Amino acid sequence: EEEIEFTVGEQFFIRYPDDGQVFPGGGNFYFQWDTPGFRQGVKVEFRLIIAAIIPEYADSPEEAIELGYNPVFYFNSEWSELPIGEWPYVELGYSVQLNFWYFTFISDTGMEQFKCGFDYAWRMDAREVIDGFESGSGDQGLWGWPEPVHSVVRKFTWGENPSGLVSPVGDDVLPLFMWDNIGCAEDGFDIQISPIEDEDFADSWGADFISTPFQYPADAPGLIPGKSYKWRVRVHSLTGNTNWSQIETFTIQDIELIEPQIGKIVESVRPYFNIDSPANISHYELLIGDENDEYVEQVEIYNREVEITALPWQYPSQNMEKGLFPNMVYYWKLLMFDGSGNILGDIEDYEVMGNFRVMPIILTEPSHGGTNIPLDQKFIWDGPISVPSYELWLSDDQDPEVENHKVFINITGSKSLD
Asked: What is the pLDDT of residue 288?
């Protein structure tokens, strides 16, 4: 007895989308495959299966197809008619390439549109259909029964991952983020921004339904000068399963002291305070301690009494209890706040900006140790600008430190007394 082995249907093959095909902006495309190439008149049915590839549900395109469900997208035509003309397809005696367009298929079958930004697996199944034939097990043909013939599984991407990310230059605490738009991202994008040391974005700030370019909002937690951050974006989806872009980084410009410089002798009891800082810091608050408060912890001189919204800022006119005094050393800090009134970072992280000394009072006339002083001697001195008034104390040679003055005179608006 002689056996003959032969293979049928070997030309059944899917062609397009090809494996790894990417449709960057989504849009229309076609599905194409080769028929088995049977003799003329053989009828063949086809079944299309498409599944989004969700890593939490499937480790491979094949597993995504076999799973039978996922929360993003799963479609099985269940041997229903495909838009290829006559149905079932009737072979011509040779293999033919069949195809239909994606948008046409949606219109004809009611299939949902793909979700932008996902990878998809697809497979075509086929089986012969013989009119009037049914086996005892219910098979309606020979080829593709009882299990249909499966094509290979291929993967394509509909709507690529966001690319072209442009990081902020860092001169603004409300920076602008930009990336390439994607045509099918009808619901916009998601963004995550996190300190650079946060490896898995666990402490990130995020926003969704945004578009490019995107400006960091004023009511979001403030970005801190001198700190580095990383960010990424993805196409928005209700399930949140789209792939994130590559990670980019940026650094917010650190503050730079302008005045008063460290150790400077200032010529006014109302000095100016100024720094070079990134734009859009909502306001500043000043703390000043005296020479015994090097770390500005007691803050007995000036403690955040006003919100400073513009720099440079001049120390205000003060009374005798709270003013800055000649020849005194002071230490200072400047706190920064975001648009919601929250401090940028932690107050413990703020370092002392520096120290300064107010110009001392210099007595010029009469000179120290002078003799033959006339009874109508004019008293002249030099001192810092903006001192509202002086007190002239006089005593005799028995009180060289003028601790128990015999004469007390208040002088306003002058640096001399006739």
From this structure: 95
